[in-house]
Amino acid sequence: MAILVTGGAGYIGSHTIVELFGEGYDVVVLDNLSNSCEKSLERVEEITGKKPKFYKGDIADREVLSEIFEKESIESCIHFAGLKAVGESVAKPLEYYMNNISGSLVLFDEMRKHNVKNIIFSSSATVYGDPAFVPITEECPKGEITNPYGQTKGMLEQILTDMYKADPEWNIILLRYFNPIGAHESGRIGENPNGIPNNLMPYITQVAVGKRECLGVFGDDYDTEDGTCIRDYIHVVDLALGHVKSVKKLEDKPGLKVYNLGTGVGSSVLDVVNTFVKASGVDVPYEMKPRRAGDVPVNFCDATKAKEELGWVAKRDLYKMCEDSWRWQSNNPNGYEE
Ligand code: NAD
Ligand code: WQD
After folding, report:
1. pLDDT of amino acid 338
2. Residue 69, CB half-sphere, CA atoms under 13 Å: how many?
3. Residues near 193 by Cβ (< 8 Å), separated by ≥ 6?
4. At what angle do helices 39-48 and 11-22 cross, to 10 degrees?
5. Would you say the CB of residue 34 lies under 6 angstroms from ligand 1?
6. In this predicted structure, what is the pLDDT of residue 244?
């Protein structure tokens, strides 16, 4: 039996496959390579000695999905595939709704047709909006989502919840990730953004490696200790291990479950910059910039539920996240391009 990993060539997907192989699972990947390349899977093979079976295709393509479900014996799906850039989603809402919502509907329908009713879905802390309280538990009400990308996460959570209510044979785990950073310890796989990075850590590493001059820190007048925003950064390998625990949980037929995956520790933008400088030994020039629209001041989670029900705890600290991000970036200044 194998696990279908949609979006498996991407950042979180490739790290998750390494950990799935480590636990002896077979993996089939479906990815259209719109934001990744097959090289990441070759590197997974380098690390683990195994290459997942790869289908280049779209989650909206019924033919390729039928082929996969007919040829491979799929027992569950980890659904990473999706577009994820917040700013781009504001400019191209239709593309985001089409890719993330329409594509996922086709995937779910083909899963149902082939009687594969076990799924783990990549959701996001973005569904909490400006959270009603911190640390955020799973009971925290969903907040106002300010961009189409985040809306697709909220909508897909609702769609999966309604599917479960109508047919309790489904087992569905919604994982709300906080801020994944870091890379595999080998330095062979990591985050590989196209163009100017939107997210903090890839921007920092690109400044450190000399590809960009200076980091802009978006806002130093928030009501936090140093005035910059607080986030719950989580090492991508810990996140990947959270998926392995979730796959095991699916084997117990849990019904519908929701888990926060974060460390429970909040770090400011300046904490990240300062820790990165220590871990890498490289200076990161930065300057203060105005607040970025849509940023919430403070966002970190209570991950107790994942600890109690999945037996999962994030173990890697911010220093380790910075060290591993830097190893990846400094060894691969142009990502997977050689
Ligand atoms: P990523 O862009 O590196 O990976 C996504 C993968 O999906 C890419 O390989 C891309 O080519 C593929 N893809 C996109 N649309 C597809 C389609 N229609 N058919 C087939 N493949 C398609 O992103 P990531 O950071 O690894 O994120 C994985 C998932 O986790 C996404 O759903 C993302 O929204 C979610 N998530 C990410 C973060 C984060 O900060 N990285 C936080 C919360 C949630
Ligand atoms: C972190 C902090 C910025 C860049 C986003 C998505 C969220 C989830 C994770 C997918 C903020 C500051 C950033 C820069 C900066 N993704 N910053 N200078 O916004 O918390 O979350 O990624 O689901 O949905 O919204 O992450 O890394 O963009 O920002 O000062 O150049 O770093 O203002 O305080 P964010 P981020």
Report:
1. 79
2. 20
3. 199, 202
4. 30
5. yes
6. 98
Residue (of 298, 324, 139, 179) closest to 229 by Cα position: 298
Per-10-residue mean pLDDT for the chain, 338 residues long? Answer: 98 98 98 98 98 98 98 98 97 98 98 98 98 98 96 98 98 99 98 95 98 98 98 99 98 98 98 98 98 97 98 98 98 94
Backbone phi, psi, residue 55, to 5°: -110, 120
Count of alpha carbons within 13 Å of 314, Cβ hemisphere only?
31
**What atom in ligand 1 is closest to the CA of residue 123?**
44
266 ligand 1 Cβ < 6 A: no
- Measured from the Cα of 34, ligand 1's closest atom is 11
Q: Would you state the pLDDT for residue 102?
A: 98
Asked if 191 and 183 count as a contact pair (C-beta separation under 8 A), the reply is: yes
State which of 200, 239, 260, 296 you would mutate to test the pocket of ligand 2, scoring each by most atoms of that ligand within 8 A of its C-beta.
200
Tell me what pLDDT residue 184 has.
98
Nearest CA residue ID for atom 22, ligand 1: 81
CA–CA gap between residue 128 and residue 192 (Å, rounded): 27
What is the torsional sign of CA 88, 90, 95, 99? positive
Cβ-contact 28, 21 below 8 angstroms: no
Q: What distance, in Å, lies between the first and last C-alpha atoms of the chain?
A: 35
Q: How many other CB atoms sit within 10 Å of the CB of residue 165?
A: 10
Give the separation between CA 138 and CA 304, rounded to whole angstroms.
Answer: 10
Ligand 1 pocket residue status of 11, Cβ below 6 Å: yes
Q: For ligand 2, atom 4, which residue shows the shortest CA distance?
A: 200
* Catalytic-residue membership of 149: yes
- State the pTM of this model: 0.99
Coil/strand/helix, residue 46 = helix
